[in-house]
Write a structure and sequence with these properties.
Membrane-bound Lytic Murein Transglycosylase D, Chain A, D-Maltodextrin-Binding Protein, domain 2, 3 domains, five-stranded mixed sheet
Length: 513
């Protein structure tokens, strides 16, 4: 689904958001439409805004007032605009007056978005779902859960408050600001584990162990349950389990060149050399979202020090000064020589797309990439996801879930959402599309693709290791330092400097070195 205008509004200055105070999204009186316009071929909201107001960027009032009018009189205005890039021929739009449009834009600044203002508020209220799921597979997954919620609670205005940026690079800062301003989303996405620390949960969040235990507590893996608890409470209702250490392979490229998917670092470099000699990009990689390189390094680090060593790096029983860390840095540095030259400008999904389109042979990424292959209509004949080199037997755990702000504007609707996502039906709908497995152990994997079947089987027998880069394993400040160090190392290749910085970051986090 194309969402560029909506995402522009939600991304712009996301790191510096000033929050618009919550307001009544829809007038209590009948909506005044200066013009009722029926969409014809070639119409866009921008063109209609230019015609009505002489400003192609003033399309937001048309979107909002059409949605308000739909709430007031669905017979006359039967269409709701959920994406400003998509209006269809025959839709009936409400065009507000210049004065009403100006007044609306004074409240809704696209650089300081309050997405709730774009939608009406029915008697059952809204549900603003804050998240960063905006790529094809991600949105397909969450949209399936939205459909279930709308069916169960048809009187609620459900709003996808999606802020683009893989790994929550833009979302997390804006979400913190909204919480601190007392204007939170009703529910918001976060990773299970220590990421919750940055949200000061005892001050801003409602404990959710009652919802978790009632909904999926008896069928939740123990490794995940441990990650959910912080200061005696659970603050996250999980929806899935991702594996962060996967090698994605274009099977045709390897087959055409007489190669097989590598399972060790030595095999990887042999395959990469053969591909590079033929002018084929061996390893697609992104960097625009600032987590792609650090996650790839973390996968290499796990493959070098092993699961016990990785857990030791988390708690200090293994030191970042260890020669194995030096080895991992050198392996990662060598791996970078086989990547695409434009890696720093590509997001994770754009790098995955290079593999999907046959422009690169491999990609190391979490299994959210599986959703991109599925969304592109690829099958097991086209691609496979296997443990990254030297990572067999280790499962780098990432789990997505939702938190419940104390000041959620619509707490009953929020609680109903959290209850819904603990259920088997919601988790199956979501994870089949997203490219992940359920946080429940009783999902029917006969409905899932081949990769996800293998992931579910591996999870049962592998060592489960919480991930650093997505906030599960270490506290947020240390995670940020780790990420920044690897980004710098990706650029300059200075092994000694990077290792010294990793040692210092661990010391700063209170972990003995």
């Amino acid at each position: 689904m194309k969402q560029s205008k909506f995402l522009y509004a939600l991304i712009a200055l996301a790191m510096l958001l000033a929050i618009v105070p919550a307001a009544s999204a829809a007038p209590n009186t009948a909506v005044a439409c200066t013009d009722t316009h029926t969409v014809v071929a070639g119409d866009t909201l921008s063109l209609l805004a230019d015609k009505a107001y002489g400003n192609v960027k003033a399309y937001w009032p048309i979107m909002a007032y059409t949605n308000y009018a739909n709430l007031d009189d669905a017979k006359k205005y039967p269409n709701k605009i959920t994406n400003p890039d998509v209006i269809d021929v025959g839709w009936v739009l409400c065009i507000p007056s210049q004065a009403d449009a100006t007044a609306f834009l004074a409240k809704f600044d696209p650089t300081k978005p309050n997405v709730g203002l774009l939608f009406g508020t029915p008697s059952s209220g809204q549900l603003q779902v804050g998240n960063w799921w905006t790529s094809g597979g991600e949105f397909a997954g969450i949209n399936g859960v939205y459909d279930l919620y709308k069916k169960a609670y048809p009187g609620v205005e459900l709003i996808h408050a999606g802020i683009a940026g893989g790994g929550g690079v833009n979302f997390q800062a804006s979400n913190i600001t909204k919480l601190q301003a007392g204007d939170p989303f009703d529910v918001f996405m976060l990773h299970a584990g220590k990421e919750v620390i940055q949200y000061d949960p005892e001050k801003y969040l409602t404990p959710v162990e009652d919802i978790v235990e009632a909904g999926e507590g008896s069928v939740m893996p123990d490794d995940l349950k441990k990650l959910l608890t912080y200061k005696g409470h659970m603050w996250t209702v999980p929806l899935n389990i991702h594996r962060g250490n996967v090698l994605w392979v274009n099977k045709k490229i390897l087959a055409d060149n007489g190669l097989t998917a590598p399972t060790t670092f030595d095999e990887f470099f042999t395959v990469a050399d053969a591909l590079k000699a033929k002018g084929i990009i061996p390893l697609a990689m992104g960097g625009a979202n600032k987590f792609e390189g650090p996650q790839t390094f973390e996968v290499v680090l796990l493959g070098t020090v092993g699961p016990d060593g990785m857990l030791g790096l988390h708690d200090g029983t293994m030191k970042f000064s260890d020669p194995k860390v030096t080895e991992a840095l050198n392996t990662y540095k060598k791996m970078l020589t086989y990547t695409n030259q434009d890696r720093d400008s590509l997001s994770w999904d754009q790098a995955t797309k290079l593999v999907i389109e046959g422009k690169a042979a491999m990609n190391i990424m979490g299994d959210w990439a599986d959703g991109e292959f599925v969304h592109a209509k690829k099958t097991a004949a086209d691609y496979e996801g296997i443990p990254a080199p030297n990572n067999k037997g280790s499962f780098l755990l990432v789990s997505d879930g939702f938190g419940f702000p104390i000041k959620a504007p619509n707490p009953e609707n929020a609680r109903n959402w959290l209850k819904l996502i603990t259920g088997k039906e919601a988790q199956e709908v979501f994870n089949i599309n997203k490219g992940s497995i359920c946080s429940r152990t009783d999902c029917d994997y006969s409905k899932f693709d081949d990769y996800l079947k293998s992931s579910a089987a591996d999870f049962k027998v592998s060592r489960v290791i919480p991930i650093i880069v997505h906030g599960s394993a270490i506290d947020p400040a240390w995670k940020t330092a780790f990420t920044d160090i690897v980004i710098k190392f990706t650029a300059d290749g200075d092994v000694a400097a990077a290792q010294a910085a990793l040692v210092q970051a661990a010391k700063d986090a209170g972990v003995a070195q």
